[in-house]
Amino acid sequence: MTTPDLVTASDQVIEPNQDGQPRIPVAVLGATGSVGQRFVTLLADHPWFEIVALTASQSSAGKPYSEAVHWMQEQPLPEVIASMEVKATAPPLPCRLVFSALDARAADRAEVEFADAGYFVVSNAGSHRMDPDVPLVVPEVNPDHLELIRHQPYDGAIITNPNCSTIGLVLALKPLVDAFGVSQVQVVTMQAVSGAGLPGVSSMAMIDNLVPFITNEEGKIESETRKILGRANAGSVEPAEIVVSAQANRVPVIDGHTECVALRLERKVGVAEVEEAFRSFSSVPQVLGLPTAPEPPIRVRSEPDRPQPRLDRSRGGGMAVTVGRVRPCSILDFKFVALSHNTLRGAAGGSVLLAELAVAQGLVPGVRSPLGVTS
Amino acid sequence: MTTPDLVTASDQVIEPNQDGQPRIPVAVLGATGSVGQRFVTLLADHPWFEIVALTASQSSAGKPYSEAVHWMQEQPLPEVIASMEVKATAPPLPCRLVFSALDARAADRAEVEFADAGYFVVSNAGSHRMDPDVPLVVPEVNPDHLELIRHQPYDGAIITNPNCSTIGLVLALKPLVDAFGVSQVQVVTMQAVSGAGLPGVSSMAMIDNLVPFITNEEGKIESETRKILGRANAGSVEPAEIVVSAQANRVPVIDGHTECVALRLERKVGVAEVEEAFRSFSSVPQVLGLPTAPEPPIRVRSEPDRPQPRLDRSRGGGMAVTVGRVRPCSILDFKFVALSHNTLRGAAGGSVLLAELAVAQGLVPGVRSPLGVTS
Amino acid sequence: MTTPDLVTASDQVIEPNQDGQPRIPVAVLGATGSVGQRFVTLLADHPWFEIVALTASQSSAGKPYSEAVHWMQEQPLPEVIASMEVKATAPPLPCRLVFSALDARAADRAEVEFADAGYFVVSNAGSHRMDPDVPLVVPEVNPDHLELIRHQPYDGAIITNPNCSTIGLVLALKPLVDAFGVSQVQVVTMQAVSGAGLPGVSSMAMIDNLVPFITNEEGKIESETRKILGRANAGSVEPAEIVVSAQANRVPVIDGHTECVALRLERKVGVAEVEEAFRSFSSVPQVLGLPTAPEPPIRVRSEPDRPQPRLDRSRGGGMAVTVGRVRPCSILDFKFVALSHNTLRGAAGGSVLLAELAVAQGLVPGVRSPLGVTS
Amino acid sequence: MTTPDLVTASDQVIEPNQDGQPRIPVAVLGATGSVGQRFVTLLADHPWFEIVALTASQSSAGKPYSEAVHWMQEQPLPEVIASMEVKATAPPLPCRLVFSALDARAADRAEVEFADAGYFVVSNAGSHRMDPDVPLVVPEVNPDHLELIRHQPYDGAIITNPNCSTIGLVLALKPLVDAFGVSQVQVVTMQAVSGAGLPGVSSMAMIDNLVPFITNEEGKIESETRKILGRANAGSVEPAEIVVSAQANRVPVIDGHTECVALRLERKVGVAEVEEAFRSFSSVPQVLGLPTAPEPPIRVRSEPDRPQPRLDRSRGGGMAVTVGRVRPCSILDFKFVALSHNTLRGAAGGSVLLAELAVAQGLVPGVRSPLGVTS
C-alpha cells in the first residue's frame, strides 16, 4: 500500500479521547441514509474514532448535515455533527479510514475508487462481499480472513461485513462449528423492517400482515455463511462445506432479526453441551478488548419464550447474539432460536467492530492502534 | 347408537332453507368465547344448519346471548341470535348435533357427557383429539377416519378437527403424500394472535415484537399430523411414518397462520410437478359439494412474495389453503410457504365442514343428509 | 351538454344485470393505483354499472390489467377484468360515465380534458373539489349541489366527492346541523394508512409509533366541510358559517378513520336528542334506494369503547358512519367519536354512490336511470 | 411526625455513591408489576437512593425477586436486585422512604398503613391523589403543594404523582398558565399500551385497530389538572378555574402518550411567544439540579411531523415533554401536540423525581438531603 493522496487537514482538530490519546479521523460515505445515521450515532462518542467528513449524493453536497439528513434515530443528532458540511462521495477526504454506508449501486464503483486512492474502506454494502480477494468478516468468527487484503490490487483496501441476517446466524454457528462440526443448517428468518432502510417496507404490508420474501436475501445467507466459515488461502476463500437452506420473512418489528435454526452436527452431543458451547464462546475481539466487542458475545436464555426482539436485541449494546430454546430436532440434530440487532451488530455496529479489529491489528496504513497491538 | 334423550322441541321452529328443506337444528357449546362467536357467525346463514341453542358457563345461563357475550366479530351479531337465551353447558338440548367451542378444560368432561347422552359432538377443542377411538379429521385429508366412531363407547359420538396450525400444514401435505410420498417435514409457523382467543396475547408482546414460542403447539403439530395422515384400523389409528419437526412463533397478525415448510419426498420430482399436485388436488368435500368446501381447496400463487396473511387468508371463504414459493431445498427436497385462516379453516369453519361431511355420510343419527347421500 | 365524441363501441357487450336491464358502461381513470383497485372491486359486481375501460399511465397502456396492476386487494382480481387491455388516460373511451381515481397531479388536467370532451366525470381526486362551479357532494348531505354542473363550461361535467376524513365528519354533522344547528367543530382525526395509497406511509413510522401530521389534511377538512354544508346558489357555493378546527394524525390502522369530535350546537339539547338525531337520519340515497346507499347511514353504538376501526368500519358495506360515546363537553356542548371506512365511504364507494345519485337524477346525458327516476 | 418503627437494619450495607456519600435506603412496594419493574430499573443506578427492600403479594413473599417477577424490561435485571428476597407489603421495612407501585386496590389501605407507621410514601397509585390533604405534585409545576403533608394525620406522609396522561398535559400547560393564563383546554390523547400494565390491553384490540376509550381516564385528566394547577391553602387545594375537556384513546404504541391540545389563553399572544414560553421554562427541579430533572423540561420541535412517540419519548432520559405543531386554533386560541413518556415521566420516573424533591427540601424525616438544601 502507498500513502493515500490526502487533503491537507490543517483545519482538522481531532480531540483526544478520555485517555488523552488523539482520536483516529474517519469519514462516513453515504451518511444521510438509514445505515449512515447509525454510523453517525455510533461514532459520535467512539473512544478511538472521530468523524471528520460525511458524504452524500451530489445534491446534498455543500449543505450542513442537519439539512441534508432526515434524522430518524431515537438518539438526538449530536450538535458537532449537525453543523458539518456534507461532501460529495469522492476522494480526497481528510482521513485514511472510511466507513461505507452506501447503497449497493453507489458502493460498487465508489468503494473501488476510494480503495484505489489509498483509503481503507470498511463497508457495510453488499457490492464486494463475494469478491474473491475481499474479506467478509465477523470479527469473532473469521478475523484471520483480513489477511486477504494483501492480495488486493488497491493502494488502500476494502473489507466488508456481511448481510444483517447472516451475521446473527454465523455468530451463533461458530461455537458449534468449532466444538462439534456443523454439516447442515435450516434457517427461517423473521426480519425487522429497519433492514430495508427508509422508506423501505410499506406500512400497508406490515399491519396485520407479514411478507414471506425478501429479495436476494436467502441466497446471501447461504453463500455468505459458507464464505465466512471457509478458509482464506492464497488470496481467496475456500467456502466451508456446510449446506445452508434459508427462508426469509419480513415481520412487523422495528429492530432485531429472529432466526429459527435447525442443524446437523458432525458429532453427537447433548443439549447441555450445545448450550455450554454458546455460553463459553469468546474470541479475538473479546481478548483484545475492542471497544465495541460484547462480552460475552453470545447470551443464552433459559426461559421458554425467549429471545424476543424488543426485550433482547439491545444486549451487549446491541452487539451480542441471544439464543434460546435449544432443543433436539427429530430431523436434524438440534433446533434453537437466535436473535441479533440488525442495524447494530448486523450493520453499522458490525462495521465499527471490524474497523476496530483492523486498526488493532495494524492493518490500516498510517494509523496506530490505540491498544499498541500489531498483527 | 341409541336415540338421544332430547327435550321436546315443540316450540322450536326451524325455518326451511332456500331450497325449501327444513334445516337441521344444532347447538353451540361455549358460544360466548372467541371460537364460539365464529361458530355463531358461520352458522347464522348456513344452508343446512340452524342454531337452536347456545350454551355458556353457569354464570351466563339465563341471559340473552347479546348480554352474555362480548361480541368481537367484524360481522354484526345476527338479531335472531342476539335474543336467544343462553343455557348452561349440559344436556338436554333440543337437537342432536352440537358444536363444541369449549376450552380444553371444560371440553374434557362436557363432551363426554353429551356423547354419553346420545349427542353427536363436533369438537374444536383439544381434549379428545388424541383419544384412540376419536376421529381427528380434515375432511379433504382423512374423511375415512370417521368410521372410528363405530368403536366409541358413547350412545352419541365425538369427532374432532385438529389444532389450527396442523390443519393448514396437513392440507398442504396431503396432495404430496398421495402423489410422491413424504418422509420428513420441517415447519416453522408464524401464527396469528386470534389463535390464542380473548384476551389472549398481551399487546405488550405484539407491538415491535414477536414471541418464538406457543405452549404445547409444536408437539400438537407433530403428533396430530401423524395421526391425520395415518391409517384408521380396528378402532384406532396407526400413525403415519412421517417425521415432523415444528417450531412455532406468535406474530402480530390478527388472522392467518403462515408456515414455512421444508420436506423430503419419497420420489424425486420437479417443482412443476409439486405445484401441479397442489393445483389439481380435490377430495371428498369437493366431490360431495359440501356447502363450506372450498373449490379448489389449495390455491397456488406464482408471485414471489405470496401468500401473505392479510391478502390471502380469505380465499375460498377462509377455507382454502394458499401455497407459494415452491422451490428446491438444498437439505431436504422442497421448500414452500403455506397460509390458512386459523379461525375459519383452522377452527370453527373446519368444524362446520366436518359436520357437513358427517351429515352427508349419514353418520348423525336421526339427521337426514340434505344431499340425499348416505355413507 | 352535447353528445360526447365516443368511440364506436360495437365490440362492447354489456351484460344485463339480474333484473334483465342492460348495464351502464363506465371507465376507471387511474385504475392501477390503490383507489383505482377499490373502484374495480366495487364496480365488478355492480348492479347498474359495467367496467368497459381501464386507464393508467402511458407506460402501462397496452398491457392486460393483470400485468399493469400490482393487485393488493383482499378480494381476488375478477377474471373478466384481469384480461382487459389498459388504455392511456385520454379520450375517447367507449362510455359516457368515467370514474377518476387519478392522483391530484394527473387529475388536474385530465379531468378537464374528459369533461371538455363531453364525459361525465365522477372524481375522487382533490384537484377540482374547491372549484366554484364543481359540486363537492356527499349524497346524503348535499345532493342538491349537483345542480352546479349546469354552470360548468364543459360539454360534460365534473362532480367530486370529498377527502376521506371530511366525509365521515360531515355525514355525522348533517343530522345535527339539520336538527339543532352547529356553529363550532373541534375534530382530531386518527387516520388509517390506506388513505396514503401505495407505498404510502413507511412501516418505520407505523410500528410502535404514530405521526401527528398529514400534509394539507387539516385545511381540507376545514374548507371542504364548510363548502359541503353550504348553499349552492347561482353557480357557486356559499360556505356554511361553521367554524371547523382540525388536527390530523396517522395511526397504525389499515382501514377506518376515527375522529374525536367536539361541537357547539345552536340549540341546547340533551344527549338522547343528539343520539336520536343520528339514529333517525335518512336522506335522498336511502329514499331512492340507491344500490350502494347504507340503510341507515349512521349507526349509533351504546358500548363505552366503540366505535373501533377493525370492528365497525365495514358496517353497511363500509358505507355507514358509526358514532359512539355521545356525551357532554365542558367547553363546547357535545363530544362523540365517529368512524368511517376511508377507502370505501371515504373514496371509491363514495364516488360510486355519487354516480348512482347522478344517474338516478338523470344528470348523465344519454344514460337512463335504472330506477326510472328523473330529477 | 415521629420516628417510624423501623426494623433494625444492622445487616443493611448501603454503598456510598460516586461522591462518597452514603445512599438513602428505599423500598419499592408492589415491585413485581409493570411500574414496579420500572422503579427497580430507575433506582438500580440512582446516585442518591439504594433499594433495600422489595415487596409483593403474600404469594411471592420469601422468593428471590428474580423468581417472583416476570421481568419484561428492555434493560437486564440487575444482579444485586435479582437475588433480593421479596417481602410481603407491610411494615416494618428497613428504610423510611418507600415508593408505591401498588395497584389502586392494594394501595388504598397499604399506603395509609405505611404512612401511619411513620413511613414517607411516594406513590404512583391513584388511590389517594384526590384526598384533600395529599399533595398531587409534578415537581416542575406545583412543588409548593408538598407543604400539605403538614396537615396529614399520619406519623409519616403520603405524596403522589398524577396519572400518566395528566403529567404530560400539565407540564406543557404550566409555562402558558404562568405567562398568559389558560382558561379552557380541549385535549385528545393517544395513549400507549404500557400504561395499562401487564397483560393489559389484548393484542386483538391493538393490531389494525385502536380503542377510543380508557376507563376513568378522562375524568382523571380533568380533575387532576385542576388540582395540580390549583392553590394549596390551609390543608387542602383550591382547584384552578381551568375548564378541561378530555377524550382518551388507546393506540398501538408501546411507550409515549401523544396529546392533541387546543386551548384558550387569557391574554392574546402570538405563536412565537407561546413557543418561547415553552422553550424558556425552567423550575425548581432544574434549579436544584435534582438527579432525574430534565434540562430543559420542555423541548420544542419545529418539524411539521413531530413529536412522534418512538422518536421523541426518550428525550431528557424520558423525563422531558416534547411539544410541536404550535399553531392558531380557529375556535380556541392555539393548538399543539405534546408527547411524554408514560412509564418514565408519567409513572416511575415522575415518582423518583418527586422523591428527590422531597428529600432535597428536607421533608423526609431522618433523611438528609445530598444537596445540603433544606426547605
Short structural description:
By secondary structure, chain A is α/β, with parallel strands linked by helices.
Outline the structure in words.
- 4 copies of one chain form a homotetramer.
- Chain A contains 10 helices and 14 strands.
- In chain A, α5 runs parallel beside α6.
- The N terminus of chain A is likely disordered.
- Chain A is α/β, with parallel strands linked by helices and 375 residues long.
- Chain A folds into 2 domains: 152 residues, Rossmann fold; 179 residues, Dihydrodipicolinate Reductase, domain 2.
- In chain A, 25% of the residues lie in helices and 21% in strands.
- Chains in contact: A-B, A-C, A-D, B-C, B-D, C-D.
- The interface between A and B is large, with 43 and 43 residues.
Sum up the structure in keywords:
homotetramer; 375 residues; alpha/beta; Rossmann fold; Dihydrodipicolinate Reductase, domain 2; 2 domains; six-stranded parallel sheet; 14 strands; 25% helix; 21% strand; disordered N terminus
- The Cα radius of gyration of chain A reads 20 Å
Secondary-structure element string of chain A: EHEHHEEHEEHEHEEEEHHEHEEH
Largest sheet of chain A: 6 strands, parallel
**How many distinct beta strands of chain A?**
14
Quickly name the level 1 CATH class of the largest domain in chain A: Alpha Beta
Supply the CATH superfamily name of the largest domain in chain A. Dihydrodipicolinate Reductase, domain 2
Total number of helical segments of chain A? Answer: 10
In the CATH hierarchy, the architecture of the largest domain in chain A is: 2-Layer Sandwich
Q: Give the strand order, joined by hyphens, for the main sheet of chain A.
A: 3-2-1-4-5-6
**What is the SS-derived class of chain A?**
alpha/beta
Oligomer: homotetramer
Q: What fraction, in percent, of the residue positions of chain A are helical?
A: 25-40%
